[in-house]
C-alpha cells in the first residue's frame, strides 16, 4: 500500500468510527475530507490548486485534513473533486435529544394536506407539499411529455398516486437529482404507493405511450431534515417546439455551487435536436466532478447520460428520439466561466 492509500484508509476509518456516513459511494467521490460534527451541512468542500475553501453554510468543522490534501489529491483520487460525509439525520437527532440543546434543524413533519395544487403539464414546484393533477379522468394525447421539478425544503420526499387513468404503456417516473447527476428513475404506480426519495430535487416525468390516455392525480410531501440546496438553483422547463437558451440568463459569469436544470419536453410531441453554440466553463480532464454540463436522453424508462463536457467543448448535437431530454449544469467553488448557450428544435 502506498502512503496515499494509507492516509485515505485512515481518514475513512476515522470518519466511520466517529459515526459518519458517506453520502456517495467512496470510489466515485473522494479526496476532500471534511467532517461535520453536527452533520447538518452536506455542502461539499472543494479543493483546487492547494487552496482550501468552504462555503459559509458549513458549520462546526471538527477536523479538516488540509495539510494532507495535496497528498490525497494524488494517485487514483485525482479529478474526483468532491467528497461528502455527514452524520445520518436520525443520529443527529438522538444526539440533540440527549444533550437537550436547542434544535434548529429538527425533523420537520409533513403538511397535513398539500399546500399547493398544480394542474399544468409540467411546472417548477417549490413547496413543502403539492397536489399535482393533470387532466384527471380527461384525455391526454398520445406521446405527451410533461416534466415537473419538485424541490421542497426538506430532504425526504414522499410521492403517492391518488388517482390515475394512465395505461400500462404510460408512466409517471421519479428521478432524484444530486451533484452526481440524475439518479435512476422509479415508476410510480397504484401498486407502489408511498415512494420515498431522499433528495433535494426530484424530477417527475409523465411519459405517455403511443395511444391517447387519461390523466392522473398525485401528491407529494416533504419532511425530515432541511435540505441543503445548491447556492443557486435554476429550473427552466422547455415546452415550446424550439428555443434558444443562454446561461446565466443575464450574462456575466456563473457563481459557485450553482445547479441549473433544463428539461426539454415539447408539449406538442416531437423529437427535438439539441445543439450547443457556446460553452465557457472551467476546464478539467474529467469534468463531471467540477463545472460540467450533462446531457440526458429519455430512453426506455430512464434518463440516460449521453455526454458530459466542460471547458470550451462543443458536443455533437443530440436528438431526443423519445421526445424528452434534459440539460444539467453544475458549478463547483472555483474558476467560474461565462456559461453556455444552446438551441433546440
Ligand atoms: C422557494 O420558496 C421559498 C419559500 O416560499 C422562497 O423563500 C424561495 O425564494 C423560493 N425559491 C425559488 C427559487 O423560487
Ligand atoms: C402512506 O404514508 C402515509 C403517511 O405516512 C400513511 O398515512 C399511509 O397509510 C401510507 N399508505 C400506504 C398505502 O402505505
Ligand atoms: C436561435 O438563435 C439562432 C442564431 O442565433 C437563430 O437563427 C434562431 O432563429 C433562434 N431560434 C429561436 C427559436 O429563437
Ligand atoms: C436517445 O434514446 C433513444 C430512445 O431510446 C435512442 O433511439 C437514441 O439513439 C438515443 N440518442 C442518443 C443520442 O443517445
UniProtKB/TrEMBL annotation:
Q: Which regions span the lipid bilayer? A: none
GO biological process terms on file: proteolysis
GO molecular function terms noted in the UniProt entry: peptidase activity
Which segment of the chain is annotated as a signal peptide?
Answer: 1-19
| One Pfam family this sequence matches | CUB
Q: Which Gene3D superfamilies match?
A: Spermadhesin, CUB domain
The reply on keyword Signal is yes
Q: Which UniProt keywords apply?
A: Disulfide bond, Hydrolase, Protease, Repeat, Signal
Record has Ligase as a keyword? no
Domain CUB per the UniProt entry, residue ranges = 223-345
The domain of life for this entry's organism is Eukaryota
Q: What is this protein called?
A: Blastula protease 10
Q: Which organism is it from?
A: Folsomia candida (Springtail)
Q: What is the lineage of its organism?
A: Eukaryota, Metazoa, Ecdysozoa, Arthropoda, Hexapoda
Amino acid at each position: 500500500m502506498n502512503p496515499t492509500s494509507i492516509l485515505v484508509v485512515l481518514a475513512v476509518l476515522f470518519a466511520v468510527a466517529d459515526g459518519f456516513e458517506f453520502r456517495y459511494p467512496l470510489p466515485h467521490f473522494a479526496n476532500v475530507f471534511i467532517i461535520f460534527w453536527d452533520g447538518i451541512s452536506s455542502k461539499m468542500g472543494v479543493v483546487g490548486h492547494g487552496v482550501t475553501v468552504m462555503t459559509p453554510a458549513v458549520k462546526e468543522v471538527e477536523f479538516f485534513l488540509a495539510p494532507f490534501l495535496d497528498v490525497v489529491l494524488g494517485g487514483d483520487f485525482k479529478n474526483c473533486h468532491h467528497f461528502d460525509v455527514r452524520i445520518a439525520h436520525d443520529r443527529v437527532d438522538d444526539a440533540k435529544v440527549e444533550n437537550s440543546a436547542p434544535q434548529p434543524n429538527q425533523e420537520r413533519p409533513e403538511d397535513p394536506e398539500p399546500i399547493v395544487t398544480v394542474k399544468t403539464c409540467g411546472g417548477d414546484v417549490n413547496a413543502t407539499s403539492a397536489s399535482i393533477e393533470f387532466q384527471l379522468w380527461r384525455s391526454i394525447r398520445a406521446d405527451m411529455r410533461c416534466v415537473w421539478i419538485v424541490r421542497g425544503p426538506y430532504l425526504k420526499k414522499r410521492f403517492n398516486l391518488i388517482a390515475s387513468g394512465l395505461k400500462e404503456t404510460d408512466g409517471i417516473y421519479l428521478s432524484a437529482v444530486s451533484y452526481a447527476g440524475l439518479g435512476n428513475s422509479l415508476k410510480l404506480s397504484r401498486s407502489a404507493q408511498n415512494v420515498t426519495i431522499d433528495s433535494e430535487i426530484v424530477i417527475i416525468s409523465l411519459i405517455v405511450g403511443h395511444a391517447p390516455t387519461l390523466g392522473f392525480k398525485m401528491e407529494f410531501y416533504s419532511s425530515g431534515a432541511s435540505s441543503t440546496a445548491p447556492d443557486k438553483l435554476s429550473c427552466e422547463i422547455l415546452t415550446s417546439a424550439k428555443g434558444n437558451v443562454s446561461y446565466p440568463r443575464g450574462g456575466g459569469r456563473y457563481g459557485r455551487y450553482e445547479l441549473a436544470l433544463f428539461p426539454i419536453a415539447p408539449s406538442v410531441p416531437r423529437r427535438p435536436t439539441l445543439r450547443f453554440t457556446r460553452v465557457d466553463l472551467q476546464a478539467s480532464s474529467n469534468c463531471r466532478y467540477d463545472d460540467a454540463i450533462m446531457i440526458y436522453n429519455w430512453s426506455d424508462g430512464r434518463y440516460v447520460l449521453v455526454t458530459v463536457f466542460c471547458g470550451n467543448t462543443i458536443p455533437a448535437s443530440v436528438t431526443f428520439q423519445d421526445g424528452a431530454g434534459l440539460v444539467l449544469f453544475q458549478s463547483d467553488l472555483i474558476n467560474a466561466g461565462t456559461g453556455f448557450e444552446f438551441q433546440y428544435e
